[in-house]
Amino acid sequence: MANVFEHLDYRQYLQEEYSDRKAKDKKISYRFLARHAGFSSPNFLQLVMRGKRNLSQESVYKIAKALKLKKDEAEFFENLVRFNQSVSNEEKNLYYSRIAADRHYVKVKQIEKTHFEYYSKWYHAAVREMVLLKEFNEDPAWISRNLSPKISVKAAGESLALLERLGFVVRNKQGKLVQQDRYIDSGDEVMGLAIANYHREMIEKAAESIEKTPPGKREINSITFAVSQERMKETKKMIQEFRQKISNFLAQEDAAEMVYQLNLQLFNVSELPKEEEE
């Protein structure tokens, strides 16, 4: 049967579990499983797997019992449901922290967990870029002093350790820390939540820079415009191409003196057309 600890999407887990059971026993059907779990609607589980219905607390217990999940598996399954069905990022972070703390999940998803940690704090990316500075010192106290805003010495040390553990920074033949790659590509699944955390913190830092950074050392401006859906698609494409061009240009830097953060923020300030929301 499917291993619940290998999933971060409970609907995907249920689909895999259903397929495995169906392959071993031809009499298995959505109707059969729904009746076995105690649901009055014969297609309820099918609707859940397709994302058309959510699970209540009682439904979670019914499914866990029908699938004969052990106590730790049932608790993990419940956290998966809460994580997937949470509306706010605050709730998602809460339930993901419970999922990531499970020793069974950590065993099979360690890489995912550490990448989540990387994107969930703004300063990990900044510390990674500081490695390129000519005067960089891997002493956590030095890192703490030279970040803006400053972080604790403990946090700086933990950040550097995380970067090494992920392989984002490595030691060259001289024993000096260097970046393994100039580009980092974020994956799927939980990365959406981690990236949301990252962007939220960076947007806050951008707001703080209005007060603490001289105008000549920053560039913050905005425009408000009305646009069609078709031209909106082209606008997004232009921004993405610009970001790629900037990334390629800065990747050639070999005499870095400071670390900057570039935020490109495009968002609606009126209600979206119905089809866009869907």
Biggest beta sheet summary:
2 strands, antiparallel
**Mean pLDDT over the full residue set:** 86
The rounded distance between the terminal residues' Cα atoms is 34 Å
**Global structural class:** mainly alpha
Summarize the structure.
The protein has 13 helices and 2 strands; from the N terminus they run H-H-H-H-H-H-H-H-H-H-E-E-H-H-H. It has helices at residues 10-24, 30-37, 44-49, 57-66, 71-85, 89-101, 103-119, 122-130, 140-146, 153-166, 191-212, 229-250, 274-277, and strands at residues 169-171, 177-179.
Which descriptors apply to this entry?
single chain; 278 residues; mainly alpha; two-stranded antiparallel ribbon; 13 helices; 2 strands; globular
Task: Summarize the structure in words.
By secondary structure, the chain is mainly alpha-helical. Helix content is 58%, strand content 2%. The protein is built from 13 helices and two strands. The chain has helices spanning 10-24, 30-37, 44-49, 57-66, 71-85, 89-101, 103-119, 122-130, 140-146, 153-166, 191-212, 229-250, 274-277; strands at residues 169-171, 177-179. It has a two-stranded antiparallel sheet. Helix 7 packs parallel to helix 11 (191-212) and helix 8 packs across helix 10 (153-166). The radius of gyration is 24 Å and the shape is globular. It starts with 9 loop residues before the first helix and ends with a helix. The mean pLDDT is 86.
